[in-house]
Amino acid sequence: MLTSSNLLNSNILAIIVPAFKAKYLRAALQSIASQTDQRFNLYVCDDCSPEDLESIYRSTFSDPSRGHYIRFPENLGCSSLVAQWNRCVEKTGGEPWLWLFSDDDLMDKDCVASFYRQRGLVDSDLYRFDTLTIDGFDNVITINPPHPMAESAMAFAYHRLNFKRDSFVVEYIFSREAFVRLGGFIPFPWAWCSDDASWIAFGGDRPIIGIPGSKVRWRSSAINNGGSPKRNTMEKIEAMILYSAWLESHAENEPAKSDRHIMDVLPKLLKHWFFRDLMHYYPLSLSQIWQVGEKISRRWPEKSALCWAIRIVQGHVGWVLRGAGNRLSG
Fold it and tell me: How many Å apart are CA 196 and CA 219, to the nearest integer?
């Protein structure tokens, strides 16, 4: 953890940018540097990028008392994105609030001011902004549905499993206390579902609080980390299975026993979510289908690997037929 002059100022918010790509970094840093409320410290954490990120940082954010550029000697994000997130947080200077941003997204100029204003009104461990989706030219392509002003962690999980709630890492500001209490972000392969699990765990029995007005602009582009579900397919499916088991266990051990009606339907909902989301990974090879069937049979042992594999094939056929029908009707 840094012990430099950032500890001498009164800023309680750390904005952390795990950086690897140069293409949109300048625009991302400019959106941070242009904040109307400058009560934050900035940490740009270079994940051993082959590109010259430091010169972009130096020409964009020049306040040495609040800005820190850290270059790691080895690339970690390619093997464990969650480990990279955690080590970036470890490089901060003890600020009680943490905002994990990105090297290609943008924030409205009054986001920091809006956070301080909302935090002064409502106390919680987790705050979030509404979002817009932008393309590679900063054009807004989607106005994502607004979040409720207060939502329990389990209600968030329920709506995510029902595909009713968008969620991006960069929209959340979380307390260091919650981060330390949980031991950092929850690791799953390729960080798939790790953010959702972490927000649910960080939130605990306190609501997730919305920050009205200001928005974060999440960029949808060909260079997004993770990208298409077609990349690292088997690792991501494994992560979905692990997440489903984690969430079911977390719900059973929820100390407040809140949202009992959600917990009662959660096992069935998780299975429905898994198979619906699995359709995004088609087509799978026959060997992959069998491997997934074996993994599912260990997670939900009421059916054999063969039965689950057959269900996957049936889902695949249905997915193809529905797609063909939509193309014909279009």
Answer: 19
227 in a structural domain:
no
Structure tokens of 126? 């987790």
Domain membership of residue 226 (yes or no) is no
Distances (CA, A) of 325 to 234, 257, 278, 283, 311: 28, 44, 20, 18, 21
Residue 71: helix, strand or coil by DSSP? strand
Domain boundary among the residues 219, 244, 261 is at 219
How many domains does the chain contain in total? 2
What is the chain's length? 330
Q: For residue 279, what are the contacts with CB-CB under 8 A and spacing of at least 6?
A: 315, 316, 319
User: What is the residue whose two structure tokens read 């093997």?
Assistant: 79
pLDDT digits (tens, 9 = 90+) for 76-116: 999 899 999 999 999 999 999 999 999 999 999 999 999 99
Condensed to tens digits (0 to 9), the pLDDT of residues 205-217 reads 899 999 999 999 9
Q: Count Cβ neighbours within 10 Å for each residue of 120-140 and write b for 16 or more, e otherwise.
A: eeeebbbbbbbbbbbeeeeee
Closest CA to 316 of 326, 304, 324: 324
CB 22 within 8 Å of CB 53 = yes
Task: Give helix 260-278 / helix 233-252 axis angle, nearest 10°.
Answer: 170
pTM of the model: 0.91
Q: Domain range for residue 24? A: 5-219
Q: Do 112 and 36 form a contact (C-beta atoms < 8 A)?
A: yes
Residue 281 counted as domain residue: yes
* Alpha carbons 1 and 41: distance in angstroms, whole number: 13
- 196 with 293, same domain: the answer is no
Domain CATH number, residue 201: 3.90.550.10
Find the helix packing angle between 260-278 and 153-161, rounded to 10°: 30
Query: Are 80 and 108 members of one domain?
Result: yes
